[in-house]
Amino acid sequence: MRWGDRFGIHRWRGHKVTTLDRQANNADIESLMAFARSRAGVEFYVEPETFATDTTAVAIAADGEWTRRRVGSPQVIQKVARDLRLPVYDVQITGYPQRMRDFNERRKRQGGSGAASI
C-alpha cells in the first residue's frame, strides 16, 4: 500500500482516472465514515464509474439524509463498510431506497438540496 493511501484507493483502482474527474482521496473516504458514525441506520450504495465521474458511494441514513463521495473503486467502500459493520449495495442492482427520495422531496419543499453537507 502506498504511503498516504490508507483505504487502498490506488491499489484497487490503479492509476486510471476518468477523463473529467478528480481522483478519490482519503478525505472523501473519511467524510463518508464521519457521516456513517454520526447517524443511525446508514447504508452505502456504490455507483459505477462513468466517463465523467470516478466510482462513488452514497451513504444514506435511516431518515433518508445522504451524502455522496468519490471512492475510486467498489472494493474501497466494501472495506470501509466491513470495518464499520454496515451494509453496502450495488445501486445498479438495488436502486436507491425510498427513504432517500422521501428525504429529497421534503428538502425540496423546504427549499434545500437533498445531500447532507459535511
The domain count comes to 1
Q: On the 0-100 scale, what is the average pLDDT?
A: 86
User: How large is the count of helical segments?
Assistant: 5
> How are the strands of the biggest sheet laid out side by side?
3-2-1-4
Shape descriptor: globular
The amount of helix comes to: 25-40%
Structural class: alpha+beta
Could you spell the SSE succession in H and E letters? HHEEEHEHH
End-to-end CA span: 27 Å
Number of strands: 4
Strand content: 15-25%
Which properties best describe this structure?
118 residues, 4 strands, 15% strand, globular
How is this structure best described in words?
The protein is an alpha+beta fold. The chain has one domain. The protein has five helices and four strands. It has a four-stranded mixed beta sheet with strand order 3-2-1-4. The protein starts with 8 loop residues before the first helix and ends in an 8-residue tail after the last helix. The mean pLDDT is 86.
Write the layout of secondary structure elements.
Layout: H1 9-13, H2 26-38, E1 43-47, E2 56-60, E3 66-70, H3 74-84, E4 88-90, H4 91-94, H5 98-110
Parallel strand pairs: 1-4
Antiparallel strand pairs: 1-2, 2-3
Summarize the structure.
With 118 residues, the chain is an alpha+beta fold.
